[in-house]
Amino acid sequence: QVQLVESGGGLVQPGGSLRLSCAASRSIFTINQMGWYRQAPGKQRELVAAITSGGSTNYADSVKGRFTISRDNAKNTVYLQMNSLKPEDTAVYYCNAIIYYGLGSTDYWGQGTQVTVSS
């Protein structure tokens, strides 16, 4: 199992930046993929960005060029640097970890952190 603790959310003006952090309770070398999802009111949860244990990254089209996912293996932490924020980026952001077990996998989730982009 793994526990995930997010931090770094808050209120920011359009065009501003925030960095989210997700600290894992175990070595992230043992986690196959970590990522960030978000859920806005009345909408489904969607993938924002993900990074595999090998360092491959994947981004939603809506955030490409503005958001960057990275990892610090020594701190067991994954980051989401968010630049040029827009009001439509407003959502609760959740950290996700996927661990493969044999033929299956298990998802783990953090508690979420609110990001509000507003003037």
Distance between the termini: 40 Å
Q: Unreliable segments (pLDDT under 50, ≥5 consecutive)? A: none
Based on Cα principal axes, name the global outline. globular
Characterize the largest beta sheet: strand count, sense, and whether it forms a barrel: 7 strands, mixed
Structural class label = mainly beta
Tell me the total number of β-strands: 11
Q: What is the H-and-E element order? A: EEEEEEEEEEE
Number of helices, where a helix is a run of at least 4 consecutive DSSP H or I residues: 0
Average pLDDT confidence is: 95
Helix share of residues?
A: under 10%
Strand percent estimate: over 45%
Whole-number radius of gyration? 14 Å
Describe this structure in words.
The protein has strands at residues 4-7, 10-12, 18-24, 33-39, 46-52, 57-59, 67-72, 77-82, 91-101, 104-109, 113-117. The protein is an all-beta fold. The strands form 2 sheets. Strands 2, 4, 5, 6, 9, 10 and 11 form a 7-stranded mixed beta sheet that branches. A 4-stranded antiparallel beta sheet has the order 1-3-8-7, with no helix packed on it. A hairpin with a 4-residue loop joins β5 (46-52) and β6 (57-59). The chain starts with a strand and ends with a strand.
